[in-house]
Design brief:
Helix content: 25-40%
Number of domains: 2
Number of helices: 11
Structural class: alpha+beta
Protein name: GHMP kinase N-terminal domain-containing protein
CATH architecture of the largest domain: 2-Layer Sandwich
Strand content: 15-25%
Pfam families: GHMP_kinases_N
Order of helices and strands: EEEEHHHEHHHEEHEHHHHEEEE
Distance between the termini: 5 Å
CATH class of the largest domain: Alpha Beta
Organism: Pseudomonas fluorescens
Largest sheet: 8 strands, mixed
CATH topology of the largest domain: Ribosomal Protein S5, domain 2
Oligomer: single chain
Domain GHMP kinase N-terminal: 97-178
Shape: globular
Number of strands: 12
Keywords: ATP-binding, Cytoplasm, Kinase, Lipid biosynthesis, Lipid metabolism, Magnesium, Nucleotide-binding, Transferase
Length: 351
């Protein structure tokens, strides 16, 4: 039995802008995705998703063929990144990422090396809410499958394997989600003009921002997936002299500097959070109901921002970072995430 688990994440600052070369700062959160794999002698691949009451068996040829088609759809999306081309990835199917992950591994092996196994996935991470559920799933799947098929880190780097799956969910991910699940703690990442992703670990969050100062709430699953929101709004951040992108970059860099101070001023932190939230509202990814909640928090002396892609419509936008003003009555209707911040990343064991 191979068991892999990795934490979820929240983007503290830098969402959306990260797709355009700006930094993103993310924190691993103690909500976990777990994957178990047990090999068996016959060639069938059995998948169990008890959280979704889903189970199915596949021939390996089916999964290799599936991911071959998804690869073509992704290449088209990369050339023409819009809502229609994203829809061709079929990212909403419950077993989509499972099939993609297994298929990607199989296509890296000779058919005579394919073997059957049973795979079970259970996750504490809310889906479609900015907590990095697909990134954690990509990391745990590829870690467990690499162990099963004895793939070496030298020949098949786990970060690259996870990215190959994550892109089938989000189109062109920034890289921050799966890297945070892989590494843990608090990280800053950015992708340069050549597409090279660099990552550095910042000082662990509890040393600088005690948990009593920052809370995460879940406003609920957004109507649209992350990929749909990105496909619909990314054009608003394009252009060499884009003032909205410049503001997002400036606020993220300010926030990163504050995290590294021994005692950052609370009022300065609140100001940066408010400013980035204003950027997200200009981008059009904060539904009116969530914006009203954030105004109530601000009027009570606090600050709040969505963490992740947000939403285009509806009343829910996923994760919400709140600093102060937790007694605002409107917050009581939302689930508070009482999980630790800055936890360790991927863990894997065999038995």
């Amino acid at each position: 039995m191979i068991h892999a688990r990795a934490p979820g994440k929240v983007i503290l600052m830098g969402e959306h802008a990260a797709l355009h070369g700006c930094p993103a700062i993310a924190c691993a959160v103690g909500l976990y995705c777990n994957v178990w794999i047990s090999p068996h002698e016959h060639r069938q691949i059995n998948v169990q998703l008890p959280d979704l009451s889903f189970q199915h068996s596949y021939a390996p040829e089916q999964l290799a063929d599936y991911v071959s088609h998804v690869r073509l759809a992704w290449e088209h999306y990369r050339r023409v990144p819009n809502a229609w081309s994203y829809a061709q990835l079929h990212a909403g199917a419950p077993d989509h990422l499972i099939k993609c992950a297994i298929g990607e591994i199989l296509l890296r092996l000779a058919p005579q090396d394919w073997q059957g196994f049973s795979l079970r996935v259970q996750s504490q991470i809310p889906t479609g809410a900015g907590f990095g559920s697909s990134g954690a799933l990509a990391v745990t799947l590829m870690a467990a499958l690499s162990q099963l098929f004895r793939l070496t880190e030298t020949d098949y780097p786990l970060e690259q394997l996870a990215l190959s799956v994550e892109r089938y969910q989000h189109g062109e991910p920034s890289g921050i989600d799966h890297n945070t699940s892989l590494r843990g703690s608090v990280v800053e990442g950015r992708r340069d003009a050549k597409g090279v992703f660099s990552l550095r670990t910042l000082m662990p969050l509890p040393l600088n921002l005690p948990p009593c100062n920052l809370r995460i709430f879940n406003t609920g699953t957004a109507r649209e997936s992350t990929g749909q929101v990105i496909a619909a709004t990314r054009y608003r951040l394009e252009g060499a002299e884009n003032t909205l992108l410049a503001s997002m970059r400036r606020n993220t860099e300010r926030f990163g500097l504050l995290l590294q101070q021994s005692r950052p001023m609370p009022e300065t932190l609140r100001a940066v959070i408010r400013d980035y939230q204003a950027d997200l509202e200009k981008l059009g990814v904060v539904p009116a109901a969530v914006a009203r909640l954030i105004r109530a928090i601000e009027n009570a002396g606090g600050a709040a921002k969505i963490c992740g892609a947000g939403a285009l419509t509806g009343d829910q936008a996923g994760a919400l970072l709140v600093m102060g003003a937790e007694d605002v009555p409107a917050l009581s209707r939302y689930q508070r995430i009482d999980a630790p911040f800055a936890v360790t990343g991927l863990e894997i064991e065999t038995s």
